Structures are given as C-alpha cells and as structure tokens.
From TrEMBL:
This is TonB C-terminal domain-containing protein. It comes from the Bacteria. Residues 86-152 form the TonB C-terminal domain. It comes from Aquimarina addita. SUPFAM superfamilies: TolA/TonB C-terminal domain.
Amino acid sequence: MKNNLKILYLFLITLSNIYGQEGIIEIEEVSVEEEPGTNPIPFAVVEDAPRFIGCDGSSNSEIKRCTSDSIHKFVKDHLIDLEKTLGEEGKKRVYGQFIITKEGKIKDVKTRGPSPELEKEAKRILELLPNMIPGKQRGKAVEVSYSIPITFSEN
C-alpha cells in the first residue's frame, strides 16, 4: 500500500513538472512487487488458510470452512449473558476484526458495534481465541486478517 502511494506521489510530481512543456514525454512503467507478509492477506484469498487446531482437509476451501465454523462456535460458546445491555430490540450485531500472525497468534483485535459494552465483550472473546496454525502465501508464513460478525441475542 505504501509503495502504491509512493508511486502515485512520484507520478503526480512528474506531471506537475512537465505541465505546460511542449513535446512528447515518455513515462516508463514501473512495477513494484510487495514482499509477502508486509500487509495482512485477507482470509478469503490467502493461498493456504490459517487453521484452527483440529481442522484438517484435503482442500483449502475445506480448511477455511472448518476454521470459520470453529471460530464461530468458539465465540458462541464464550458469550456472556448481556440481556440488560441488549434492551428491547433483543438482537444486536458487532463486527470484529483481527490478525492471525505468522506464528498463529491473535493480535490487533478491533470491534465496532452499537454499544461500548457489546464491543468490549466481543473484543474479550476474540482475544481468547487459541493459537492457530499460520496461513501461508507462496510457501511462506504470512499474517492473515479475519473479520467476523458477532450477533448478540437474548437466547
């Protein structure tokens, strides 16, 4: 991402320097390949998905499905009773996001929801997630971002 911004910045400077000059100016195309692992790769597109312990499969899609199901079950099993916070509506959703590191640990947990209490509870649960088998891109361990909606209900 930073490299793309640098290229855009250099391109804009070049354009501002040549604006108003006559003649044809050739601009050489430059490609920048980011080193794997510099930015988290989304769970949906990583080549070899991180695995929740116990998730095995013959394909990446089976591993992704098992890992997602296991994360959802873990969250559901660790929710506390928040009837007072839910109010009359009875059902509220918090969106959580975190990174699975190259070592399989959970970091940078962020939540967004309708109340600070629900955000705090969602963050508490996501920080409890166990270590996982890290994801890989081009054969190297990489950080993988994962997003999850957490629905709180009166049940």
